[in-house]
Amino acid sequence: MDKLIITVAVTGSLPTKRVTPHVPITPEEIIRDGIACEAAGASMIHLHARDPEDESPATDLALFGAICRGIQTKTRLITQISTGGRAGMAYEQRCERLQLKPEMASLTTGSVNFPNSVYENSPGLIEALAADMQKYGIKPEMEIFDLSMISNATALAEKGLVSTPLHFDFVMGLRGAIPATVENLVHMRRTIPSDATWTVAGIGKAQLAMTTHAILMGGHVRVGLEDNIYLRRGELATNAQLIERVVKLSEILGREVATPDEARQLLHLPLLPV
Ligand code: MG
């Protein structure tokens, strides 16, 4: 079985300091968590930016730039920028950050009804973001919230808008998205192209179970405070603790953990100079 790629989604759009004091908000805090998570065993970091004043999701290119520069100079983590946008962020606000040429960026290939809002990704927007990633040499991570998004992703490849092999992230257990069951995970794995790589982001209390199944099934995993803020019921986690738990689990289950450079090889990314 391939070594395990562990992605940390350190921040996301939602958790605030009031909900968990451990969530990193400023570029300095995000970089500090990236360093700690690399030391704990992560090989990739999924990045969002926040307004340092009010903690809301930010689109400011300078913030994304500061975060990327810090991660790239202080770690060897694979940098993956989110192109997600809540509350009606327009294409212009979601694509600008791709100029920073991270190694990867997330690409959601469909729309989702979140509990109180629509996470809107129109066909035109998805294609425009895919074309931008291609222009900058960025490998997309297909963010899959439901089965139909897998066929949307393979259709992009057929159109030549993304290169193969594809890499998928199954986001499971979020209200409005596919439920986090083993049957659904097995079915999604079976549905993607056979040469594709895949990872699972289990949301909330689904994180531990989905992580465990992915380790056993030969997939990869994403953990972090974007997706889940608890270590166990009632006990808030730090990002590094969530990584440590995956590392411990994979040791028990007999799966080796990939270094960032090994993860680059598994994902067919260019290697960085030493
Ligand atoms: Mg995200």
Task: Give a description of the structure.
This protein has 274 residues and is α/β, with parallel strands linked by helices. The chain has one domain (6-266): Alpha-Beta Barrel (TIM Barrel). 38% of the residues lie in helices and 20% in strands. It is built from nine helices and 14 strands. The strands form four sheets. Strands 1-2-5-6-9-10-11-12 form an eight-stranded parallel β-barrel, surrounded by eight helices. The relative contact order is 0.18. The model has no long low-confidence stretch (mean pLDDT 95).
How helical, in percent, are the residues? 25-40%
User: Could you describe the largest sheet, including whether it forms a barrel?
Assistant: 8 strands, parallel, barrel
Structural class comes to alpha/beta
Unreliable runs: none
The amount of beta strand, in percent, is 15-25%
CATH-assigned fold name: TIM Barrel
Strand order of the largest sheet: 1-2-5-6-9-10-11-12
Oligomer: single chain
Average pLDDT level = 95
Series of secondary-structure elements, N-terminal to C-terminal: EHEEEHEHEEEHEHEHEHEEEHH
Kindly provide the name of the CATH class. Alpha Beta
Shape: globular
Number of domains: 1
What is the number of E strands? 14
CATH architecture: Alpha-Beta Barrel
**Bound small molecules, deduplicated:** magnesium ion
Radius of gyration: 17 Å
Helix count, DSSP H or I runs of 4 or more residues: 9
